[in-house]
Amino acid sequence: MTTDTLSPVAVPSPPLPRLSASELLDLARACGADDCGLASIDDPSLAEDRPYILASFPKARTLLVLVGRMHREPVRSPARSVANLEFHRSGDHIDEVARGIVRALEDRGIRALNPAMAFPMEMDNFPDRAWIVSHKRAAEAAGLGRMGIHRSVIHPRFGSFILLGTVLIAAEVDAVATPLEHNPCLECKLCVAACPVGAIKPDGAFDFSACLTHNYQQFMGGFVNFVEDIAEAKSAKDLRGRMSYAETVTRWQSLSYGPNYNAAYCLAVCPAGHDVIGPYLADRKQHVADVLEPLTRKTEPVYVVPGSDAADYVARRFQHKKIRFVRSSARATSIRGFLQGMRLTFQPGKSKGLDASYHFTFTGAEPAEATVTIRDRRLTVQPGHVGKADLAITADATNWLRFLAKEISVPRLILTRSLRLKGPVRLMAAFGKCFPS
Protein backbone atom coordinates (compact mmCIF):
# COMPACT_ATOMS: atom_id res chain seq x y z
CA MET A 1 0.00 0.00 0.00
CA THR A 2 1.36 3.37 -0.90
CA THR A 3 0.48 6.78 0.41
CA ASP A 4 0.67 9.78 -1.86
CA THR A 5 2.32 12.80 -0.28
CA LEU A 6 0.48 15.94 -1.13
CA SER A 7 2.56 19.12 -1.33
CA PRO A 8 0.88 22.38 -0.46
CA VAL A 9 -0.07 24.30 -3.54
CA ALA A 10 0.72 28.02 -3.48
CA VAL A 11 -2.41 29.97 -4.25
CA PRO A 12 -1.55 33.21 -6.02
CA SER A 13 -2.93 36.35 -4.48
CA PRO A 14 -5.64 37.95 -6.58
CA PRO A 15 -4.37 40.95 -8.54
CA LEU A 16 -4.91 44.30 -6.91
CA PRO A 17 -7.71 46.34 -8.42
CA ARG A 18 -6.93 49.23 -10.73
CA LEU A 19 -8.86 52.40 -10.00
CA SER A 20 -9.63 55.54 -11.92
CA ALA A 21 -7.59 58.48 -10.67
CA SER A 22 -10.36 60.93 -11.51
CA GLU A 23 -12.92 58.91 -9.53
CA LEU A 24 -10.64 58.79 -6.48
CA LEU A 25 -10.02 62.53 -6.60
CA ASP A 26 -13.75 63.19 -7.00
CA LEU A 27 -14.39 60.98 -3.96
CA ALA A 28 -11.87 62.90 -1.88
CA ARG A 29 -13.46 66.22 -2.80
CA ALA A 30 -16.94 64.87 -2.11
CA CYS A 31 -15.75 63.83 1.35
CA GLY A 32 -14.56 67.37 2.05
CA ALA A 33 -10.95 67.71 0.84
CA ASP A 34 -10.09 71.19 -0.42
CA ASP A 35 -7.57 69.66 -2.80
CA CYS A 36 -6.07 66.23 -3.36
CA GLY A 37 -3.51 64.34 -5.42
CA LEU A 38 -2.16 60.85 -6.03
CA ALA A 39 1.30 59.34 -5.70
CA SER A 40 2.66 55.81 -6.11
CA ILE A 41 4.26 53.90 -3.25
CA ASP A 42 7.15 53.37 -5.67
CA ASP A 43 7.81 57.10 -6.16
CA PRO A 44 11.56 57.58 -5.54
CA SER A 45 10.89 60.61 -3.34
CA LEU A 46 9.00 58.34 -0.92
CA ALA A 47 11.81 55.79 -0.53
CA GLU A 48 12.41 56.75 3.10
CA ASP A 49 8.72 56.41 3.93
CA ARG A 50 8.05 53.17 2.05
CA PRO A 51 9.25 50.71 4.76
CA TYR A 52 7.12 52.42 7.42
CA ILE A 53 4.07 52.57 5.17
CA LEU A 54 4.34 48.88 4.27
CA ALA A 55 4.95 47.90 7.89
CA SER A 56 1.59 49.41 8.82
CA PHE A 57 -0.26 48.41 5.63
CA PRO A 58 1.60 45.85 3.48
CA LYS A 59 -0.89 46.05 0.60
CA ALA A 60 -0.48 49.80 0.09
CA ARG A 61 0.16 50.76 -3.52
CA THR A 62 -1.24 54.28 -3.86
CA LEU A 63 -1.20 57.36 -1.67
CA LEU A 64 -4.20 59.68 -1.88
CA VAL A 65 -2.96 62.94 -0.36
CA LEU A 66 -5.44 65.41 1.11
CA VAL A 67 -5.23 69.17 1.59
CA GLY A 68 -7.35 70.97 4.16
CA ARG A 69 -7.47 74.76 4.09
CA MET A 70 -7.03 76.63 7.36
CA HIS A 71 -8.56 80.03 8.05
CA ARG A 72 -5.87 82.67 7.83
CA GLU A 73 -6.79 85.20 10.50
CA PRO A 74 -6.95 82.69 13.40
CA VAL A 75 -3.51 81.34 12.46
CA ARG A 76 -2.15 84.90 12.32
CA SER A 77 -3.50 85.86 15.74
CA PRO A 78 -0.94 86.57 18.50
CA ALA A 79 -3.43 84.81 20.82
CA ARG A 80 -2.10 81.28 20.74
CA SER A 81 -5.37 79.77 21.97
CA VAL A 82 -7.06 81.05 18.81
CA ALA A 83 -4.33 79.76 16.50
CA ASN A 84 -4.19 76.38 18.22
CA LEU A 85 -7.95 75.96 18.02
CA GLU A 86 -7.73 76.45 14.26
CA PHE A 87 -4.95 73.86 14.01
CA HIS A 88 -6.89 71.31 16.05
CA ARG A 89 -10.22 71.76 14.30
CA SER A 90 -8.62 71.75 10.85
CA GLY A 91 -6.70 68.62 11.78
CA ASP A 92 -9.85 66.90 13.03
CA HIS A 93 -11.54 67.77 9.73
CA ILE A 94 -8.75 66.22 7.67
CA ASP A 95 -8.91 63.03 9.76
CA GLU A 96 -12.69 62.88 9.22
CA VAL A 97 -12.25 63.38 5.48
CA ALA A 98 -9.75 60.53 5.37
CA ARG A 99 -12.05 58.32 7.43
CA GLY A 100 -14.94 59.00 5.04
CA ILE A 101 -12.80 58.01 2.08
CA VAL A 102 -11.76 54.76 3.77
CA ARG A 103 -15.41 53.93 4.49
CA ALA A 104 -16.46 54.62 0.90
CA LEU A 105 -13.66 52.45 -0.47
CA GLU A 106 -14.37 49.68 2.03
CA ASP A 107 -18.00 49.63 0.89
CA ARG A 108 -16.66 48.91 -2.61
CA GLY A 109 -14.44 46.10 -1.34
CA ILE A 110 -11.22 48.12 -1.64
CA ARG A 111 -8.83 48.06 1.29
CA ALA A 112 -7.55 51.40 2.58
CA LEU A 113 -5.98 52.86 5.72
CA ASN A 114 -5.86 56.43 7.05
CA PRO A 115 -2.87 57.31 9.30
CA ALA A 116 -3.46 60.32 11.55
CA MET A 117 -2.61 63.69 10.07
CA ALA A 118 -0.67 64.52 13.25
CA PHE A 119 -1.27 62.87 16.62
CA PRO A 120 -1.58 60.13 17.80
CA MET A 121 1.60 58.64 16.36
CA GLU A 122 3.71 55.52 16.90
CA MET A 123 5.70 56.71 19.93
CA ASP A 124 7.23 53.37 20.96
CA ASN A 125 10.70 54.37 19.76
CA PHE A 126 10.48 58.14 20.38
CA PRO A 127 12.51 60.28 19.72
CA ASP A 128 13.15 58.18 16.63
CA ARG A 129 10.60 58.45 13.81
CA ALA A 130 7.03 58.32 15.10
CA TRP A 131 4.99 58.99 11.93
CA ILE A 132 3.85 56.36 9.44
CA VAL A 133 4.02 58.59 6.38
CA SER A 134 5.51 62.02 5.86
CA HIS A 135 2.50 63.97 4.60
CA LYS A 136 4.81 66.75 3.40
CA ARG A 137 6.85 64.46 1.16
CA ALA A 138 3.68 62.77 -0.07
CA ALA A 139 2.11 66.14 -0.90
CA GLU A 140 5.15 67.15 -2.93
CA ALA A 141 5.08 63.84 -4.79
CA ALA A 142 1.35 64.31 -5.46
CA GLY A 143 1.94 67.75 -7.01
CA LEU A 144 0.13 69.64 -4.26
CA GLY A 145 2.91 72.09 -3.38
CA ARG A 146 6.54 72.48 -2.48
CA MET A 147 8.28 73.10 0.81
CA GLY A 148 9.42 76.64 1.43
CA ILE A 149 12.42 77.71 3.49
CA HIS A 150 10.17 77.47 6.57
CA ARG A 151 9.99 73.69 5.93
CA SER A 152 6.22 73.62 5.46
CA VAL A 153 4.44 72.80 2.21
CA ILE A 154 3.16 75.82 0.28
CA HIS A 155 0.07 75.08 -1.80
CA PRO A 156 -0.11 77.08 -5.05
CA ARG A 157 -3.59 78.39 -4.16
CA PHE A 158 -3.93 78.26 -0.34
CA GLY A 159 -0.28 78.98 0.43
CA SER A 160 1.02 77.89 3.83
CA PHE A 161 -2.45 77.85 5.41
CA ILE A 162 -3.03 74.13 4.97
CA LEU A 163 -2.90 70.86 6.85
CA LEU A 164 -2.25 67.54 5.14
CA GLY A 165 -3.45 63.97 5.37
CA THR A 166 -2.87 60.75 3.43
CA VAL A 167 -4.98 57.69 2.68
CA LEU A 168 -3.10 54.50 1.81
CA ILE A 169 -4.94 52.41 -0.78
CA ALA A 170 -4.42 48.75 -1.72
CA ALA A 171 -4.95 49.42 -5.42
CA GLU A 172 -3.17 50.78 -8.44
CA VAL A 173 -4.45 53.86 -10.24
CA ASP A 174 -4.41 54.68 -13.92
CA ALA A 175 -2.53 57.94 -13.37
CA VAL A 176 -0.52 59.71 -10.65
CA ALA A 177 0.52 63.33 -10.35
CA THR A 178 3.88 64.89 -11.05
CA PRO A 179 5.58 67.35 -8.66
CA LEU A 180 5.14 71.07 -9.23
CA GLU A 181 7.82 72.47 -11.50
CA HIS A 182 7.96 75.76 -9.58
CA ASN A 183 8.17 76.46 -5.86
CA PRO A 184 5.50 78.92 -4.65
CA CYS A 185 7.91 80.15 -1.95
CA LEU A 186 8.63 83.84 -2.60
CA GLU A 187 11.84 83.79 -0.52
CA CYS A 188 10.58 87.05 1.01
CA LYS A 189 12.25 86.02 4.32
CA LEU A 190 9.25 87.12 6.41
CA CYS A 191 9.37 83.72 8.11
CA VAL A 192 13.00 84.42 8.98
CA ALA A 193 11.98 87.73 10.60
CA ALA A 194 9.03 86.18 12.45
CA CYS A 195 10.68 83.12 14.03
CA PRO A 196 11.16 83.89 17.74
CA VAL A 197 14.20 81.58 18.05
CA GLY A 198 15.93 82.24 14.73
CA ALA A 199 15.41 78.65 13.57
CA ILE A 200 14.99 79.72 9.93
CA LYS A 201 18.19 81.17 8.53
CA PRO A 202 18.43 83.74 5.71
CA ASP A 203 20.54 81.30 3.68
CA GLY A 204 17.84 78.61 3.93
CA ALA A 205 19.44 76.59 6.74
CA PHE A 206 17.19 75.35 9.51
CA ASP A 207 17.89 74.89 13.24
CA PHE A 208 15.63 71.92 13.98
CA SER A 209 16.50 71.72 17.66
CA ALA A 210 15.66 75.40 18.28
CA CYS A 211 12.23 74.98 16.67
CA LEU A 212 11.57 71.74 18.56
CA THR A 213 12.61 73.13 21.94
CA HIS A 214 10.45 76.26 21.73
CA ASN A 215 7.46 75.38 19.58
CA TYR A 216 6.90 71.90 21.04
CA GLN A 217 7.79 72.79 24.63
CA GLN A 218 4.36 71.85 26.00
CA PHE A 219 4.50 68.29 24.67
CA MET A 220 6.82 65.60 23.31
CA GLY A 221 10.39 66.15 24.54
CA GLY A 222 9.42 69.24 26.51
CA PHE A 223 6.89 67.20 28.47
CA VAL A 224 9.58 64.64 29.36
CA ASN A 225 11.71 67.46 30.77
CA PHE A 226 8.67 68.73 32.71
CA VAL A 227 8.19 65.32 34.35
CA GLU A 228 11.89 65.15 35.22
CA ASP A 229 11.71 68.64 36.73
CA ILE A 230 8.93 67.39 39.01
CA ALA A 231 10.93 64.29 39.95
CA GLU A 232 14.02 66.35 40.75
CA ALA A 233 12.24 69.10 42.70
CA LYS A 234 12.85 69.00 46.45
CA SER A 235 9.57 70.77 47.29
CA ALA A 236 6.67 72.68 45.80
CA LYS A 237 8.63 75.88 46.36
CA ASP A 238 11.60 74.42 44.48
CA LEU A 239 9.32 73.41 41.59
CA ARG A 240 7.81 76.90 41.41
CA GLY A 241 11.35 78.21 41.02
CA ARG A 242 11.80 76.00 37.96
CA MET A 243 8.56 76.94 36.18
CA SER A 244 5.85 79.50 36.61
CA TYR A 245 2.28 78.84 37.69
CA ALA A 246 1.12 79.79 34.18
CA GLU A 247 3.52 77.31 32.55
CA THR A 248 2.17 74.44 34.65
CA VAL A 249 -1.41 75.35 33.72
CA THR A 250 -0.38 75.64 30.06
CA ARG A 251 0.92 72.07 30.14
CA TRP A 252 -2.36 70.92 31.67
CA GLN A 253 -4.19 72.65 28.83
CA SER A 254 -2.04 70.84 26.26
CA LEU A 255 -2.85 67.51 27.90
CA SER A 256 -6.54 68.26 28.18
CA TYR A 257 -7.36 69.95 24.89
CA GLY A 258 -4.60 68.89 22.50
CA PRO A 259 -0.97 69.88 21.99
CA ASN A 260 -0.51 73.63 22.12
CA TYR A 261 2.14 75.04 19.80
CA ASN A 262 4.00 78.09 21.07
CA ALA A 263 4.49 79.52 17.60
CA ALA A 264 3.43 79.00 14.02
CA TYR A 265 4.61 82.45 13.06
CA CYS A 266 6.43 81.21 9.97
CA LEU A 267 3.09 80.08 8.52
CA ALA A 268 1.20 83.12 9.76
CA VAL A 269 3.34 85.68 7.93
CA CYS A 270 3.82 83.73 4.69
CA PRO A 271 2.19 85.66 1.78
CA ALA A 272 2.58 82.90 -0.83
CA GLY A 273 -0.39 81.31 -2.61
CA HIS A 274 -2.85 82.67 -5.15
CA ASP A 275 -5.61 83.27 -2.58
CA VAL A 276 -3.23 84.85 -0.06
CA ILE A 277 -0.80 87.03 -1.96
CA GLY A 278 -3.07 89.91 -3.02
CA PRO A 279 -2.77 92.18 0.06
CA TYR A 280 0.99 91.58 0.18
CA LEU A 281 1.47 92.66 -3.43
CA ALA A 282 -0.86 95.63 -2.94
CA ASP A 283 1.04 97.02 0.06
CA ARG A 284 3.99 95.10 1.48
CA LYS A 285 4.63 97.56 4.29
CA GLN A 286 1.02 97.25 5.43
CA HIS A 287 1.30 93.44 5.37
CA VAL A 288 4.32 93.68 7.65
CA ALA A 289 2.50 96.08 9.97
CA ASP A 290 -0.70 94.02 10.08
CA VAL A 291 0.70 90.48 10.21
CA LEU A 292 4.40 90.40 11.14
CA GLU A 293 4.73 93.14 13.74
CA PRO A 294 1.99 91.97 16.15
CA LEU A 295 3.84 88.65 16.44
CA THR A 296 7.34 90.07 16.82
CA ARG A 297 6.16 92.69 19.34
CA LYS A 298 4.40 90.15 21.52
CA THR A 299 5.82 89.75 25.03
CA GLU A 300 6.04 86.02 25.67
CA PRO A 301 8.33 83.32 27.07
CA VAL A 302 10.77 81.93 24.52
CA TYR A 303 12.24 78.52 25.35
CA VAL A 304 15.91 78.03 24.50
CA VAL A 305 18.79 75.82 25.55
CA PRO A 306 21.57 77.65 27.45
CA GLY A 307 24.61 78.19 25.25
CA SER A 308 22.67 77.68 22.02
CA ASP A 309 22.56 79.85 18.93
CA ALA A 310 18.87 80.42 19.68
CA ALA A 311 19.69 81.84 23.11
CA ASP A 312 22.08 84.35 21.54
CA TYR A 313 19.53 85.21 18.85
CA VAL A 314 16.66 85.95 21.25
CA ALA A 315 18.87 88.09 23.49
CA ARG A 316 19.98 90.11 20.48
CA ARG A 317 16.79 90.28 18.40
CA PHE A 318 13.90 90.13 20.88
CA GLN A 319 15.03 91.78 24.08
CA HIS A 320 11.40 92.38 25.15
CA LYS A 321 10.62 88.66 25.12
CA LYS A 322 11.32 86.58 28.21
CA ILE A 323 14.12 84.05 27.74
CA ARG A 324 13.28 80.77 29.47
CA PHE A 325 16.25 78.41 29.70
CA VAL A 326 15.31 74.73 29.42
CA ARG A 327 16.91 71.43 28.57
CA SER A 328 16.94 70.44 24.92
CA SER A 329 13.85 68.64 23.66
CA ALA A 330 16.03 66.71 21.20
CA ARG A 331 17.49 63.82 23.16
CA ALA A 332 19.34 60.74 21.86
CA THR A 333 18.29 57.42 23.37
CA SER A 334 20.47 55.27 21.10
CA ILE A 335 23.84 55.55 19.41
CA ARG A 336 22.10 55.47 16.06
CA GLY A 337 19.93 58.36 17.22
CA PHE A 338 22.99 60.25 18.47
CA LEU A 339 24.83 59.93 15.15
CA GLN A 340 21.79 60.83 13.05
CA GLY A 341 20.61 63.55 15.41
CA MET A 342 23.86 65.52 15.34
CA ARG A 343 22.80 67.04 12.02
CA LEU A 344 19.67 68.37 13.70
CA THR A 345 21.23 69.68 16.91
CA PHE A 346 24.52 71.12 15.61
CA GLN A 347 24.96 74.82 16.46
CA PRO A 348 27.04 76.51 13.73
CA GLY A 349 27.54 79.68 15.75
CA LYS A 350 29.23 77.74 18.54
CA SER A 351 31.67 76.06 16.13
CA LYS A 352 33.33 79.30 15.02
CA GLY A 353 37.07 78.71 14.55
CA LEU A 354 36.81 74.93 15.06
CA ASP A 355 38.46 72.78 12.39
CA ALA A 356 38.67 69.19 13.60
CA SER A 357 37.94 65.59 12.68
CA TYR A 358 36.67 63.11 15.29
CA HIS A 359 36.71 59.32 15.15
CA PHE A 360 34.00 57.78 17.33
CA THR A 361 34.18 54.12 18.35
CA PHE A 362 31.28 52.78 20.39
CA THR A 363 31.57 49.42 22.11
CA GLY A 364 29.24 47.23 24.12
CA ALA A 365 25.49 47.09 23.58
CA GLU A 366 25.45 49.14 20.38
CA PRO A 367 28.81 48.96 18.58
CA ALA A 368 29.38 51.55 15.87
CA GLU A 369 32.10 53.63 14.22
CA ALA A 370 31.72 57.10 12.74
CA THR A 371 33.73 60.11 11.60
CA VAL A 372 32.50 63.58 12.52
CA THR A 373 34.10 66.61 10.88
CA ILE A 374 33.45 70.20 11.91
CA ARG A 375 34.91 72.80 9.57
CA ASP A 376 33.83 76.26 8.40
CA ARG A 377 30.79 76.08 10.69
CA ARG A 378 29.59 72.96 8.91
CA LEU A 379 29.14 69.41 10.17
CA THR A 380 29.55 66.13 8.30
CA VAL A 381 28.92 62.67 9.75
CA GLN A 382 30.21 59.60 7.89
CA PRO A 383 30.01 55.91 8.78
CA GLY A 384 33.30 54.25 9.72
CA HIS A 385 36.68 55.87 10.32
CA VAL A 386 37.59 58.12 7.42
CA GLY A 387 41.01 59.76 7.15
CA LYS A 388 43.08 60.84 10.14
CA ALA A 389 41.35 62.00 13.31
CA ASP A 390 42.40 64.97 15.41
CA LEU A 391 40.67 63.29 18.35
CA ALA A 392 39.71 59.63 18.70
CA ILE A 393 36.90 58.91 21.15
CA THR A 394 36.22 55.35 22.28
CA ALA A 395 33.25 54.89 24.58
CA ASP A 396 30.95 52.25 25.96
CA ALA A 397 27.63 52.84 24.19
CA THR A 398 25.41 52.56 27.27
CA ASN A 399 27.53 54.89 29.36
CA TRP A 400 27.85 57.41 26.52
CA LEU A 401 24.07 57.68 26.43
CA ARG A 402 24.07 58.12 30.20
CA PHE A 403 26.57 60.96 29.71
CA LEU A 404 24.31 62.60 27.14
CA ALA A 405 21.44 62.36 29.63
CA LYS A 406 23.65 64.04 32.27
CA GLU A 407 23.56 60.95 34.48
CA ILE A 408 27.33 60.53 34.53
CA SER A 409 30.27 62.92 34.06
CA VAL A 410 33.25 62.74 31.71
CA PRO A 411 35.76 62.34 34.59
CA ARG A 412 33.71 59.42 35.88
CA LEU A 413 33.65 57.83 32.44
CA ILE A 414 37.40 58.17 32.16
CA LEU A 415 38.03 56.76 35.64
CA THR A 416 35.91 53.69 34.87
CA ARG A 417 37.57 53.36 31.45
CA SER A 418 34.19 53.72 29.79
CA LEU A 419 35.69 56.60 27.82
CA ARG A 420 39.14 56.83 26.24
CA LEU A 421 40.50 59.85 24.38
CA LYS A 422 43.43 59.97 22.00
CA GLY A 423 44.33 63.50 21.03
CA PRO A 424 43.93 67.00 22.49
CA VAL A 425 41.35 66.97 25.28
CA ARG A 426 40.38 70.56 24.43
CA LEU A 427 38.77 69.24 21.25
CA MET A 428 36.33 67.27 23.40
CA ALA A 429 35.20 70.47 25.10
CA ALA A 430 35.00 72.28 21.74
CA PHE A 431 32.84 69.46 20.39
CA GLY A 432 30.49 69.69 23.37
CA LYS A 433 29.97 73.43 22.85
CA CYS A 434 28.54 72.68 19.39
CA PHE A 435 25.80 70.53 20.92
CA PRO A 436 24.45 72.29 24.05
CA SER A 437 21.77 70.34 25.88
TrEMBL record:
Gene3D superfamilies: SCP2 sterol-binding domain. Residues 176-205 form the 4Fe-4S ferredoxin-type domain. It holds the Pfam family SCP2. Keywords: Iron, Iron-sulfur, Metal-binding. This is 4Fe-4S ferredoxin.
